[in-house]
Amino acid sequence: MPNKTLAYRVNHLHLNDLNLTKPYLISPFVGNLPCLNFLSITNTNNLVSSVSLTLRHFMRFTNVFGEILHFLSQIKTLETIIFLYNNFSGNLPLRLPLISNLYRVSFDGNRISATISNSFGSFSEPFKLITLSNNCLTRGILETLAKLVFDFVDLSQNMLINLANNSFAFDFGKVRVSKTLEILDLSHNHLYGTLPEGLTSLKNLGFLDVSYNNLCGKTPRGGRLQKIDVSSYAHN
After folding, report:
1. Burial of 195 (0-12, 13-18, 19+ CB in 10 A)
2. Cβ-proximal residues to 111 (8 Å cutoff; 6+ apart), any chain
3. Domains (ranges, CATH) in the chain?
4. Is the pTM value of this prediction over 0.70?
5. Does residue 186 contact residue 195 with C-beta atoms inside 8 Å?
6. How far is residue 150 from each of residues 90, 165, 168, measured CA to CA in Å?
7. Is the CB of residue 220 less than 8 Å from the CB of residue 199?
8. CB within 10 Å: which end of the chain, N or C, has fewer?
9. 75-133: pLDDT as tens digits
């Protein structure tokens, strides 16, 4: 009988919690996997990437360190991208919105500080969840993401202060707020739902303004919310 070679389709790829003792290469062929729809790299050290064929330089990552892997946009079947608590820095891949089936992007716990590209305002309809907490974002994300409708957004523990006068539209009751939050201005947007209960546990909250939105329900009681002026909830 002739030898048979079994071919397997890779749908999910997890490279999590790998304690690598020396650098290992992430093959550029990852970008050509025809059926890959889930990619997760979390708490992994000593990964080296030759990135995609569209980039001609070599990138080295210690604990997945350096610029974010730009070959991601070549994986057209991706639905979920999760790179948590590594040392990524610089820009998010500019061409991620070209992945038409993308639903979730999570880059929490990295060192992303650059302005978010305007292209991030053009994700396709399936895109509903983005988490960029514990980074160094200061600006740019407001204009680029304001036109999208999300099921869940987490931008906590960045350097963002004023999110007012945009077109954010999401269920505010589902938002997880940073325990170190001191100032939050989300006035003049299109927020709906209730105020998150987590606001009552913020020990350093000194200013809150969610006026001119579409919020409803009772105001949570407790903590420093008791000192917030009622005008901060007006026109809801």
Report:
1. buried
2. 87, 88, 89, 135, 136
3. 1-160 (3.80.10.10), 161-236 (3.80.10.10)
4. no
5. no
6. 24, 18, 9
7. yes
8. N
9. 777 888 887 777 777 777 778 888 888 888 888 888 887 666 677 778 888 888 888 88
